[in-house]
Records
---
Amino acid sequence: MNDTESTTAMFPSTPAGTPGGGGGKAGAPSLITPDYVLQLNKIADDYLCTPDANIYEIDFTRFKIRDLESGAVLFEIAKPSVSDIAQTTSTEGGAKKEPAAAATEATADSATVSGAATTTTPTATEEVEETFEPNAGRYVRYQFTPQFLKLKTVGATVEFTVGSKSVKNFRMIERHFFKDRLLKTFDFEFGYCIPFSKNTCEHIYEFPTIPPDLVNEMIQHPFETRSDSFYFVDGCLVMHNKADYAYNGGL
């Protein structure tokens, strides 16, 4: 595929199955379409597809956020390779390390996994918490400093691989809410991906201007800002990820 521009919030590892529907909130149609998710007026109550809907074996392996104005890398996370995981499953004494502890590694020039503010740039303090049951890899929690809400344009680069099936019309719809208020909808095209390919693309996020009173409310109510990321192939839902956000890092 050609390099375009896109994002994801976590690194799901999902087996093959049947795409399209099931497992969603009460009243959801059996086949989830882009038009359906675009008309939702709040965060989905549940996941709108099961993990095994990812029959294309799409696997996100790296994610980076950068401020386009300054060029600063705000956050970067990479999924370790199989060889990396193998190396971390044992120590010098031969003791095994729990897989969950080695499941994700994060690096950032201006972000720390502890959530403490950094001295280099306060823009994005970041903390990630992943759940492993029952929806392992489909939920992530971020913590940023208040300065993040002042950013105008952010580039989100994602690296991902696909399995034995070609991926046509790969599309992501990401909807951000504060409580039940829609903040912004992002709608990005990944295009076509050949089988067994590794793809890298960047999507440009132009953030809306948020009124000062709403900014203060978002800072004062951590993790009540949430997002749904819906991934479609040829109009069929194959992945659904969730995230929530806090903007009180360093306070």
---
Amino acid sequence: MARFIQLLTLAGLLQVGTCAAIAPRASEPKLPHDANTIADCTWWFDMTETVTCNTFLEGEGITIEQFRRWNPSVKANCAGMTVGKSYCVEAVFETVPEPEPESPKPSSTKPNPSTPTTPSNGVTTSQPAQPKMVNNCKTFYFVQKGDTCASIATKHSLPLAKIIEWNGNDDCKSLWADAWACVMTLSYKPPSQPAPSPTKPSNGITTQQPTQAKIVDNCNKFHFVKSGETCASIASKYSITGAEFLKWNPSVETGCTGLWADAYACVSVIGYKPTPSPTTGPSNGIKTPLPIQTGMTTSCNKFHLVTKTTTCTSIESTYKIKLADFYKWNPAVGTSCKSLWAEYNVCVGVIGQSPAPSPTNPGGVPTPSPIQSGMVKGCKKFQFVETTTTCASILSKHGITMANLYKWNPAVGSGCNNLWANTHVCVSA
């Protein structure tokens, strides 16, 4: 018996070693699980991230039949698996049910008339299928790794919105590879083809496909959005403002949260006249970095590049300015900070502004700016944090402990999860 237990333990260890890249697993579930899961489960899989059905089954070395027998809540093609739940992936002591005896073969080669050979809609659904596919699909496409809703729409000359609608992907982030997707339903009627005589739309410009979910109908210039691009980078490339880009592509939404990759965006419209670039330097002698949001004060002499984690409050704290002034200098941000755009420059200081007092330590060392809030008073030595700087590199460089770094700079957090780039930290006090 001891050897049997050792073998079970070894098998469990091998399984963990082989599949650690997918998710944690153990002899006890660490996450909620279905009450109908087999009672004799000896090994559990904690689903902490999405994974394709085939990859999961191959990694665990089990069949879909075994997995569904141990986890009755799971359907075909792993449908029903949910992130945040535990699932049984081994049941050593399970009593496997005896297979039912085969029914005698009928003498006739014709199927039993009472058993339908096709679904009620007359179309057999290819399997495995996307988990939320509509039930009236008639044409299917096998999704391969690297496919996107946009690329599938282009391949089948369909609106992107239809691919999303028919496959139950509201944001197109849960498209499964190695499974079938619907590319035509029984009820869909493609738009009628234009008459042969006019070869172009009424405005004379052919709209590139697929497009963002919603763009203006008088667009005359398009940009194919690639993965990693942002509203700011596109606006900068075509020398347009963020407000103009948002106006022409309203579905991207304020903050650029609705920008789709692998789809075209509008970057100019009929009749648009870009603002000419100045041929001389600014009148105040200070060059304004681009891009910026509309309406920024013309007397700005200090700028800050907004990142995804930047907030109006963090800017107020870093630059020791009043929020009322910040909103006045950057009206497009709004008084509630709802329109602070990442990858855009904002004004954090103006000509003639009285600078915030820079405290001088007893040792005669002036405190540089900007700093994070709550820094210890009396700091004797500082380090400027670059974008590549880490707490570990600071500790190594100055021979200090994390406890002291946190004590002198409480805003960075005890686990160093809030260290800001382009600010100063105290490294000796």
---
Amino acid sequence: PADLRRFRDYLRALTEHDGPGEPDLSAFADFSQFPRYGATFAQNARAVAEERAARPPQRGDAPGFERLAVLDVGLNPHQIAFSADGRTAYVAAAGSDQVAVVDVATRTLARTIPVRGTPLAAVPLPGGTSLAVTRFGGEEIARYRISDGAELGALRTGGAPSLLTPIGEGRFLVSVERTDRVHVFDARTFDLAHTYATGRRPFPAAATTDGRLAFVPAYDDGTVTVVDLWNDTVVARVEVGERPSGGAVLPGDLEYAVAVRGEDRIAFVNTASKEVVGSLSEGIGASPFSVVVAPDGRLAFVNNTASHDVSVIALPEKRVIARLPVGAQPIVMAVHPSGATLWVSSEGSHELTVFRIPERWRAARDGGSPALPAGV
């Protein structure tokens, strides 16, 4: 009946509120809670919970996730990286040949650093005075001084280096799409320490927290190459599905989650057996591109490039809880080191979107975590 549906709408308004103050219940000003609707309060609450659980989140379902800002940082923004103190974000704007420098506290563009060669990544190096910038069109990694933007040197990588994945001790993984290779880039010496063969057209890599295993999706042959970095050898090539494009190692280092773009799902690879052990498609949008995990490990995020949204996955349940609308073709994401905000680069609409992550999905930060800038 209509009265029961309205009662359930009232319950949703109560249970989905996640902001400061009380929920807005003005639409229910004439509403009274009486059992004349043929069910008890508890029965209605259970019905609402069952309805919500039975329906995967749709685009726009974003309980508690607040859009804080949409920024113009240049054309075709890609990788987002943060300074060690968490106060500055660096965004590679590939179409503008520049790096945008963003004040995290105010969420405003502070300045830009001109670069060359279609930059896909701009990551601060140890010491915090310079950036490593991958030149997708220039086939190299360049170094720029942050203070004045001066170019300090460049390192040849081969055709089309993409994003930079930190693996500790000043080292990064960089996949090179046109040579079917992944390099270990040592920023301390500004040199390539190791090189490994991958599948066809490797996309950005991920690694276990101890830096031992690297996982490299190969977009054109549907595999993930697993590299033992400690023993300097390729140990497996795992078939995961059509067009795997980016992934992350989940908390505990037990599984690697990779977006299978051609099949609109996430595949899970056991890091010990190197076998696919699961899949998630419910709640994943069209053309998922990559996976990132929040610092506390409670949430994972998947950018869906064709449905123009981000699926939010609760861990360890592997359940999609939200679908956040963003600009056209969200291509790269990052979670602020504080765990408070999600940053999304949308290549097609040339914008950077910042979301606040609800407090209930954030674990308490320990004393060693970066300070939370005002406004984050």
